[in-house]
């Protein structure tokens, strides 16, 4: 089981892992409502190294990026849920709109993003490749989307009358 840590704690743990010759993998996102696509992505990411760091957007950054009705699940609860996953070793919350600063401080060996991000859109690519690491894009699981899941829930709450 992973654990929720502060950014300073994460830097300490990453340094310890690296001293032991372990490869650190980093991914990030809002992860508002978990679905099997997320789980499979975490498992693929974890397979690329010895420990997986999942950085999540704070509530305020999710709200800015996704709108006033998000996040559905508060940041501390999202972090706790993610830390309980077997594939996840560390969960850290960041308040900025992107994790660039954290990536530059942590310098994981591998940065992983979903295939919906273009190669030039992946935040932290320059920092990771400049430090000798690699950036990996993993294919998204078809049929899974947090936004689509939220829309489906909202539609079901409105009932069949709203569909007319």
Q: Which residues form runs of ≥5 with pLDDT under 50?
A: none
CATH architecture grouping: 3-Layer(aba) Sandwich
The tally of helices reads 7
Which range best describes the helical content: under 10%, 10-25%, 25-40%, 40-55%, 55-70% or over 70%?
40-55%
- What percentage of the residues does DSSP assign to strands (E)? 15-25%
Task: Please give the order of strands in the largest beta sheet.
Answer: 1-4-3-2-5-6
Radius of gyration: 16 Å
Written overview of the protein:
The structure is a single chain. The model has no long low-confidence stretch (mean pLDDT 91). The protein is globular. The longest helix is centred in the first third of the chain and has 13 residues, at 7-19. With 164 residues, it is α/β, with parallel strands linked by helices. 41% of the residues lie in helices and 18% in strands. Strands 1-4-3-2-5-6 form a 6-stranded parallel β-sheet. Helix 6 (125-130) links the parallel strand 5 and strand 6. It has one domain: Rossmann fold, CATH 3.40.50.
Condensed summary:
The chain has about 160 residues and is α/β, with parallel strands linked by helices.
Summary keywords:
about 160 residues, globular, about 40% helix, six-stranded parallel β-sheet, alpha/beta, Rossmann fold, single chain, about 20% strand
Present the secondary structure layout.
Layout: E1 3-4, H1 7-19, E2 24-29, H2 36-46, E3 51-57, H3 59-66, H4 75-83, E4 90-94, H5 100-106, E5 110-114, H6 125-130, E6 134-138, H7 146-158
Parallel strand pairs: 1-4, 2-3, 2-5, 3-4, 5-6
